[in-house]
Amino acid sequence: MTKTRILLVEDEFVIRLSLSEFLENKGFAILQAETSYDARKIINSHPVDLLITDLSLPGLWNGVQLAEFVRKKHKNIPVIFTSGTFSHPNSTLFKNLTSTHKDIFITKPYQLDFILETIKKLLSV
């Protein structure tokens, strides 16, 4: 059986490492990226079933712009957006993106079990 492939894009090393290890222990295949640039390289060479991305990323693209890029290759991919800066993003770009797709926004800090339940919910719909 093929494992669900999750691309985790998080610039904070400790968060990326702990979430990655937690999800790998739950049976997911995790592809990690620190920046949107790293994530684009992964997307161009690996299939992905779900994207978890911080809204604020180093580099040229933020999490919303990265999700748009990912959806050019994986049209219906669900996305979990996270942020420790925004309580809820209210940009028009974010609203347009999430209104037509299965997306969830979660504020940091979050519980790992909550992320797991959110993943299960997004992938079962």
UniProtKB/TrEMBL annotation:
Domain of life: Bacteria
Listed name of the protein: Aerobic respiration control protein ArcA
Pfam family, one: Response_reg
Gene coding for it: arcA
Naturally occurring in which organism (per UniProt): Entomobacter blattae
An example Gene Ontology biological process: phosphorelay signal transduction system
Residue list for modification 4-aspartylphosphate: 54
Annotated keywords: Phosphoprotein
PROSITE patterns referenced in this protein's UniProt entry, alphabetically: RESPONSE_REGULATORY (PS50110)
